[in-house]
Amino acid sequence: MKNLVETFCRRFEQNVSQAFAGLFSPDAIYIDSLYGAYEGREAIRAFHERCHKEAEAYHFQPVTIVSDNGDNLSFEWTFSYVSRMPQSRGKRVTLKGASFMTLRKGEIVSYREYSDSVILLLGGNVPAEKIVKFYRRKYPGLFA
């Protein structure tokens, strides 16, 4: 499955959203640590397209395959990009994380990742009040 991880990472880096979405089943669920959940291949394609509008020069490097039993795959990674957002244009942001995939007949049916989202927000020069707003939305019960 190392080939699938490499293919996944390379396709994410490339600005070809249809090819990236083609790795997923039509009913797949993709959960991004910053942007949340996307259901279905078309939503995943649109998410990928958005990523390439907001940043460029992606580098998605798998570090370690943690688990691979044929139907479930997990790996650690390092991820970076150069921001296109107005508050951080031209700045390279880097973070580490882990991903978990569930596979069916060679397609990804479930993808979820975990990373320290605050690194992306701070690295992107997002103002503190917007970071708090983000985390209040993401974890509504946490800020009672």
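The record above closes out task 2.4. Task 2.5 opens with a second protein, given below.
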Amino acid sequence: MDRSGCGAPDPVPAWWPLETAAHARAGLAYVVQEVLAGSLPARDANAATGALSALVNTIRATDLELRLELLERTLDHRGKA
């Protein structure tokens, strides 16, 4: 699948698409490397870092919601046994 129109770096790295917190962390590391190499302006890096951080927070919240839901179902099931 061609992801070049989706904002993916070229060549597409292993952490793309950004679907997990680990992917987002790898994306953050990529941004840092590009800034330190002088390939990415700090202004662009700041925007990317903010977006990636928001993604990590969203993924964590979703994971916690799913874990809580599973725990609640488990406790509810035990209460009916």
